[in-house]
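User: Predict the complex with zinc ion.
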Amino acid sequence: MFEIIKRDGLARIGVLHTRRGRLDTPALLPVVNPKLATVTPADIYYHFGFQGLITNSYIIKNSQGLKEKALDEGLHKLLDFPGVIMTDSGTFQSHMYGEVEVSNQEIIDFQKAIGSDIGTVLDIFTEPYWTEEQTRDSIAVTLERTVEAVSLKEDMMIAGVVQGSVFPDLREECARSMASMGVDVHPIGGVVPLMEQYRYRELVEVIISSKKGLSPDRPVHLFGAGHPMLIALATLLGCDMFDSASYAKFARDDRFMFLDGTSRLQDMYGLECDCPACRDHDLESLKALADEERMVTIARHNLYELKKEMGRVRRAILEGNLWELAETRCRSHPALLDGLRCLKEHVSYLERFEPLSRDCAMFHTGSETLSRPSFHRYAMRSQERYVSPTERCMFMEETGKPHGRYMGKEFRSLLSKDVLPLVRTAFGPVPPDLDEIYPMAQSLFPSIRDGETECLMDREEKTFMEVHGLRNVTADIDEGEFDINLMRALSVARYQFGREAADILFDGPVELVVSRNTGKIRNVLVSGEHILSMRASDGFYTLRVEGARKLIARLPAPTMRVTVIDDAIPFNREGRNVFCNFVFDCDPDLRPMEEVMVVSKEDELLAVGRTLLVREEMLSFKKGIAVKVRDGTLSQKI
Ligand code: GUN
Ligand code: ZN
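Assistant: Here is the predicted structure with zinc ion placed in the model:
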């Protein structure tokens, strides 16, 4: 079973529970060639700390000595590895050398017999140069074999490989069929040639189309991906597992893997690496080593580099800055940058998984940052959900964040003259009442703008003015007073919950509780009831039970709701979290970290909280929290 611990967009930190114990994801499985272990499996486990490895059952089966030992003693004893062992099936050998002499049933039975924890179907490797017809026909065979493997697997986990060459529709279709089968792990296969040829743009298309068809409750493995420079991007797109044969293969050719690419020993002018393998060497001493020892040293370096990057990526997910890390990594090679750049074409899909806010500020790392889902979301919501108080506007340059702290006086003066001040930002024009929400206030851009940012700003300003029927005016700024807080209170509600919900919430006399220290809104009372509180950290609201009562009465289902099954009702009423296995349905428009009402099937309000997952995730996971509940209707302090 696969459990999600933390997510950021499509990226996730999870645990695959296997019969050999846990595999924490994102996970890298070093490939061990059972015939020549460059680094021993015991070292991989105890010294490097990798919880799993992958080896090839086809090679074991075809080697008399290994086969007998594996059948007699089991795979874990054969390799001397106490962790999770995944086995591949011979498909890669067919890609390299042509046909393999084994049937799907034989290789599944063999993987079971030697005690593999995760076995793999004998899928057909769809080459990138194949025609659509050839690809379609071979997917049909792979799917048949997957059905067969599922029927044979018993208590072994099974990996069902998504194939489809470079055809996004076929990938998605294949993934969707796989998702409906009793498979435990989903490798994305047939991508090694794309990586070898630096075709990262197509690789990204393949990953995204596969992810679209797969079910979120299973880990996704990118077959053959084991270069540290690719891990951040692939994790960002929702890959949970990787395997690397390159650490050993590259070492055989004296090649070092670094975060910014691969370097050949004879081309290097220095060795600045401080990893335990390199620490006691300089170039000359390394070159002087005997072939075997040098190869092992480089292989160990490559594993340290991979291990470090896995840890770095994990930390980035926890800290909320994986986008920044992936963007930085992708700058190490123009072809990787292509992979990053084509995310722009998938921004609507990515936005569905984008959290409402993050704990850390967003950093601009280059023009590709402008295509991040947060930008798309601001453009959409500020056009669709914002309501301008006037038809006249005036643009201002940004001087600091949040804008109101630096330009509050000018804002009030303009607003009192019926002019909407708009601050020019890379997100597009920001009105004074949306200046504190994420990521407008929680972001950093270079003060010297590039041409692309200017271009985007011009475009967004034009659209914003058109959508809201605004006309640019010049106005003298002098003393004038205007209470911007009331405007902010309503605009943030519209931006966060949508116009309809905001109008329901603000349907009576409004009273704002403002912080004496900062002047910022803390609580919103309507008709004397405390309905919303505003968070200082990201400028958004938390919904109170009283606010939810107003919404539930007039906002049609399923908007802003997670519906739970009857068994969960008493628990949620008392303020306990909503677990995935109790979710009956969910508003498909809710994004991660949004405010939500927990309701029964009869639409009775049970609790309020924040979503951790989107609908399809809530419905597919069997374990884990779907909604972090803040207050149950029976748990409120009176
Ligand atoms: N190893 C690398 N690519 C593949 C693939 O497409 N299928 C299998 N089974 N193993 C692989
Ligand atoms: Zn090193």
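Residues 2-348 form a domain with the TIM Barrel fold (CATH 3.20.20.105).
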